[in-house]
């Protein structure tokens, strides 16, 4: 898959996730579903072990951690491309 195709796939995924969740930011619960982790606890463990494949951040005056839809989509598209090579 070319870089152009990967970018197109990432854009499609981003549009789908934005439509599904209505926000450019995903919570840990949403991230668990999108990345197909077994549970929220598994995501938290990946964060603690620093093995979660996307950047996680905190927001001031908000509980929990978050990830950008764009980062998640770029990761998923790159993984899809890596599997085809």
Q: Return the CATH class.
A: Mainly Alpha
Number of helices: 4
| String of helices and strands | HEHHEH
CATH topology-level fold name? Arc Repressor Mutant, subunit A
> What portion of the residues fall into strands of 2 or more residues?
5-15%
Number of domains: 1
Report on the structure:
With 85 residues, the protein is mostly helical. It has one domain (3-84): Arc Repressor Mutant, subunit A, CATH 1.10.10. The protein contains four helices and two strands. Strands 1-2 form a two-stranded antiparallel sheet. Helix 1 (3-21) crosses helix 4 (69-84). The longest helix has 19 residues, at 3-21. It is globular. The N and C termini lie close together (7 Å). The mean pLDDT is 93. It comes from Idiomarina fontislapidosi. This is DNA-binding protein.
Keywords:
85 residues, mainly alpha, Arc Repressor Mutant, subunit A, two-stranded antiparallel ribbon, 2 strands, globular
In short:
This protein has 85 residues and is mostly helical. The protein has helices at residues 3-21, 28-34, 40-49, 69-84, and strands spanning 25-27, 66-68. The protein has a two-stranded antiparallel ribbon.
Secondary structure layout plus pairing:
Elements (H helix, E strand, L loop, with lengths): L2 H19 L3 E3 H7 L5 H10 L16 E3 H16 L1
Antiparallel strand pairs: 1-2
Helix pairs in contact: 1-4, 2-3
Protein name: DNA-binding protein
